[in-house]
Each structure stands twice: as structure tokens, then as C-alpha cells.
Amino acid sequence: DGGITQSPKYLFRKEGQNVTLSCEQNLNHDAMYWYRQDPGQGLRLIYYSQIVNDFQKGDIAEGYSVSREKKESFPLTVTSAQKNPTAFYLCAIAGVPSYNEQFFGPGTRLTVL
Amino acid sequence: QQQVKQSPQSLIVQKGGISIINCAYENTAFDYFPWYQQFPGKGPALLIAIRPDVSEKKEGRFTISFNKSAKQFSLHIMDSQPGDSATYFCAARPGSARQLTFGSGTQLTVLP
Q: Angle CA(B59)–CA(B40)–CA(A26) in degrees, nearest 5?
């Protein structure tokens, strides 16, 4: 937690709808990450961004999109192409000099109805 | 491809006992190995981390043991307490990368 906020805490979506999860930070860290957490599968990287206007796909990017228009914001859109979107989504940040420690936000639990 | 294998999936320990969680990796380029602790409904938080130039690191009741030749590392929680009940994740990162690879997690329950 700390300087990372995620909203909303809970989100419900009907099938076929796109939804956007918010991640904001005030720690001036360069790198931001989105993870998906499912029971028994740990944390899987969806997308990450090291600088504004640049981002890279992680291991499970299909069905998701991101933008990084501002250093402090890294929203994640779960599109209708994501076949099984119900999960706990975590945003994380990391910064200089080593990017070793990732600080996680409180998470958003998305449920598809 | 799972690059960090974590075991056991769940662990039940009596109060005062020792909890041991193990991780194994394949990528020899990994040079940073953190452990994260996650309470239900919360984001993970960094607990302790180690680099391969040392074989052990201790912080309070938490110790990481590292075996470079076997490509294994483990978390030991001494004098386990009910408040330690949480999910623990190991992770690894190669020196050139800025993202972590996580293990699948271990749900620890410490009985009072």
C-alpha cells in the first residue's frame, strides 16, 4: 500500500463489457506493473511499463490493454476478449536504483457476472 | 513456463514451531531472490531478500537459506506465530530485468 492506490476495491462486470482498473502512485517511481492473482497460481505478470508512453507485454497480456500517459498512472483495461477475467488484480511499482523491491497496491477484485 | 517452483502449496504449523517453505529455480541468470508475505485481501509486501553471494540471511524470526549449486532457496520462520498466517511467495529476478518471476505461493496456517 503506501503511495499506491487501486480503485475500485471490488468490481462487477457483465460478460461482454470492457472495464478499466485504476492504479495511481505518488512515489515518483518509474516502473509500474500489473499482475493477476488466481488461487494456487501465484502472481502472473500482465503488463509492465518502465517509462511514460512505453509498456511491454507480460506472460498473460491477451485480453488486456494498458496505457501510460502519466508517470503516476497506469490503468488496466480488461476487454471482452479476456475469456476468464474473474481474479484479483494487483498493481505494483518499483524505482531506482535497483528496481529490486516492488511495492504492491491493495488490489482490485473483479468478478464477472 | 514456470521458472520458480514453490512447495508446499499449504502448510500447517503449531505455534512456536518452525515453518519451512522451499523454492527451486532453473534460470542461472537469476541474481535476486525476494520473499513476499500476503494477508487475505491485501497486496503482497516484501519480507526479506537475498543475493546469491551469501548462503544465509536472517531478519528477526525470518531466515533465507540459499544453495546456489542446487538452485534452491528456502524461507524459515522460527517460533511461528498465529499472526504469521498468510500466503508466502518466493520470487526471482535476473540482473538485466526489471520484472520478477513469482512462485505459486504457500498458504501458511499457524495454529494457536
A: 75
Closest chain B residue by Cα to residue A96: B98
**Residue B98 — φ and ψ, nearest 5°?**
-115, 15
* Residue (of B75, B100, B78, B80) closest to B8 by Cα position: B75
Residues B2-37 have pLDDT tens digits of 589 999 999 999 999 999 999 999 988 898 999 999
Tens digits of per-residue pLDDT, A14-52?
Answer: 988 999 999 999 999 999 999 999 987 789 999 999 999
Q: Is the peptide bond before B8 cis (omega within 30 degrees of 0)?
A: yes
For residues B19 and B85, is the Cβ–Cβ distance under 8 A? no
- Rounded to an integer, what distance in angstroms lies between the CA atom of residue B50 and that of residue B20? 16
Q: Which chain B residues have a beta carbon less than 8 Å from that of A92?
A: 43
Nearest CA in chain A to B50: A100
